[in-house]
Design a protein that fits this description.
This protein has 381 residues and is an alpha/beta fold. The chain binds iron/sulfur cluster.
């Protein structure tokens, strides 16, 4: 039965079809945990890309089709011949002892690729394995499930391996390179955050069968190309902190009613799409922008990597002269000052600093003097 919060979330989304969370949208929650707009758009199942596009700020992130094809080809190669390359990486590179190996393909159930059927089969084989029955140790594309805000969310890791250290491990196969044992930290973080959702879902599955969460490791096995070759290598990534942070975010979703209660009663992100298959938005863009503007955002530059609303939020932060556009590190330095207008006012001595701004105001005036002197020197040269 629906509760008033669900009704309110449905009204926020309007007449569009509900979009459910996925591993990527869950990972994005962990990236910007304080953002109210993102929390509301996701919880209401609103189409962020369509909304951002309609207000004139279409998203432009996401993998190119070339990168997707390369990623799929690399994953297929790692899993070829019963995961022969993966086993080599686990045994040789990561020095794991894997005496017996049994492979279970969960990409479909007898040709049926529907999520529900795959989830039921996944649950059956993983629980059997956790109880020490059967001989499967590598589970290819298991279909996990979490209940988030009362909605079923299906999640599909690349692979889950059992009996590494006697525990289940999530294996993420990525096509970005590990060069001299180092990989791009942003890409590793993105892969890890996504894998955290799988860890939580796996623990949930086992927990329902009274199997403790320690059965699932919070260390992720990352498999990626070595140096500039196509040969896979591996690394362990400690995801403890991110698992804890995402767990906190998931409990925040369960309390979404607290955020909804603060909204104006008639607020909606409805696009009012045409009833035909084109689903053209009929709502005036200015009206939708006004609705979005009423909700708190906490823009930061890395939103550009993970949120469809990023260009809208950046433009809003710029219009508000917010220091958010410069990122959390700069913001922290200017603790207590919110806007670039205020920074400039203090630097030029046009604003009187409050007691706790005296120190930063002096530093700003000093920086402004140095800049002016440099400009003078440049002009004289
Ligand atoms: S882009 Fe905007 S809506 Fe998305 S997380 Fe960042 S601040 Fe929130």
């Amino acid at each position: 039965m629906k509760n008033p919060v669900d009704d309110r979330l449905d009204a926020l989304r309007g007449s569009a079809k509900r979009l459910d969370y996925n591993a990527r949208s869950l990972a994005a929650l962990e990236n910007n945990p304080r953002c109210t707009l993102r929390a509301l758009l996701d919880a209401s199942g609103s189409d962020k890309a369509a909304i951002a596009t309609h207000v004139g700020h279409p998203p432009s992130f996401g993998q190119s089709s070339f990168a997707i094809t390369r990623g799929n080809a690399f994953e297929a190669m790692v899993k070829d011949n019963g995961c022969a390359e993966l086993l080599r990486v686990l045994r040789e590179t990561l020095e794991l002892t894997l005496p017996e190996v049994g492979y279970e393909d969960l990409n479909d159930v007898g040709g049926d690729g529907r999520s529900k059927q795959r989830h039921e089969r996944t649950e059956e084989v993983l629980l059997r394995a956790a109880r020490g029955e059967g001989d499967a140790t590598l589970f290819d594309h298991p279909m996990l499930r979490l209940l988030i805000g009362g909605h079923k969310v299906y999640l599909e890791p690349d692979l889950v391996a059992l009996r590494i250290d006697g525990r289940f491990h999530v294996v993420e196969i990525k096509s970005f390179p590990i060069i001299d044992d180092q990989a791009d930290s942003t890409q590793v973080r993105a892969a890890t955050t996504q894998a955290c959702a799988y860890i939580i879902a796996l623990r949930d599955l086992l927990g329902r069968a009274s199997i403790g969460e320690e059965a699932v490791s919070d260390t992720i096995v990352l498999v990626a190309p070595k140096d500039f070759t196509n040969r896979p290598t591996g690394a362990f990534v400690d995801a403890r902190k991110q698992v804890a942070a995402l767990t906190r975010q998931l409990s925040r979703i369960e309390r979404i009613g607290d955020l909804v209660d603060l909204l104006p009663e008639d607020l909606t992100f409805d696009l009012d799409p045409t009833p035909d298959k084109n689903k053209q938005p009929r709502r005036p863009a200015e009206e939708l922008t006004e609705a979005l503007d009423q909700v708190l955002v906490t823009y930061r530059p890395d939103c550009l990597n993970h949120c469809e609303m990023a260009f809208y939020c950046r433009s809003r932060a710029r219009a508000e002269a917010s220091l958010d556009v410069l990122g959390p590190a700069v913001r922290e330095q200017f603790g207590g000052i919110d806007t670039t207008t205020m920074v400039m006012g203090l630097a030029r001595g046009e604003l009187t600093p409050s007691e706790d701004q005296v120190e930063i105001a002096a530093a700003l005036r000093h920086a402004a003097r140095l800049r002016a002197e440099l400009e003078d020197l440049g002009g004289a040269a």
